[in-house]
Design goal:
- The protein is an alpha+beta fold.
- It contains eight helices and nine strands.
- A five-stranded antiparallel beta sheet has the order 1-5-4-3-2. Strands 6-7 form a two-stranded antiparallel ribbon.
- It starts with a strand and ends in a 10-residue tail after the last strand.
């Protein structure tokens, strides 16, 4: 567990900013976040933020992901006092951070973002991850799905991909304890049976 005292950081604002669609709220200012093949629980109490990972993972992944080495206070102080519009924006979203996400995940979510609202975009992303993402396990035996690779999606028909925008896939976002396979082993879409991606060797 890594505990930091951070200025200009609000996990609620970050999780609901529409930058990333793989935050799952699990409590008051507590979220599970999937990035790549990594799962993180993050909790905030005032300025104290707890990252449920070891120091090596924190420095290798999450420090840069949350852009923690950038002085956002300095950036906000640079906004001209006479610029009321930007001053109001700073006051409203003073805890936001620019997430340094994986390029492919960013591109994929940007394309899906044309679905017009955060709830629907999140559902589309999770449908794709549930059906075509790699099944991963963390050190606590929690099960979750990564963002599908470009190669995996390229092998799908356009008909199936379009259905992901509206169909209700089994909810595999919330991490589960135990090594049991996610409840869905195959899912039928308009007469087409889809086999989920296998567990990769890279996952713990």
């Amino acid at each position: 567990m890594i505990e930091c005292v951070l200025n200009d950081f609000d996990i609620d604002q970050i999780a609901n900013s529409g930058q990333c669609f793989r935050f799952h709220r699990v409590g008051d200012k507590s979220y599970d976040l999937i990035a790549g093949t990594h799962l993180l629980n993050i909790q905030q109490n005032g300025r104290t933020v707890r990252f449920d990972c070891d120091e090596d993972e924190f420095n290798a992944i999450w420090r840069s992901y949350f852009d923690l080495d950038t002085d956002y206070g300095h950036c906000k102080a640079a906004v001209a006092k006479r610029d009321i519009y930007l001053q109001n924006a700073v006051a409203y979203g003073g805890g936001l951070r620019i997430l340094r996400q994986d390029l492919w995940e960013t591109i994929l979510c940007f394309i899906i973002s044309q679905q017009n609202n955060i709830a629907r975009i999140t559902k589309c992303v999770e449908n794709l991850c549930s059906l075509f993402g790699e099944i991963c396990y963390n050190k606590s035996e929690q099960v979750y799905n990564s963002i599908p690779t470009a190669e995996r999606l390229a092998a799908c028909t356009l008909r199936i991909l379009r259905r992901c925008a509206s169909a209700t896939a089994p909810n595999t976002f919330a991490p589960r304890h135990g090594r049991s396979r996610p409840v869905r082993s195959i899912w039928k879409l308009s007469g087409t049976w889809i086999t989920p991606a296998p567990k990769p060797n890279c996952c713990a």
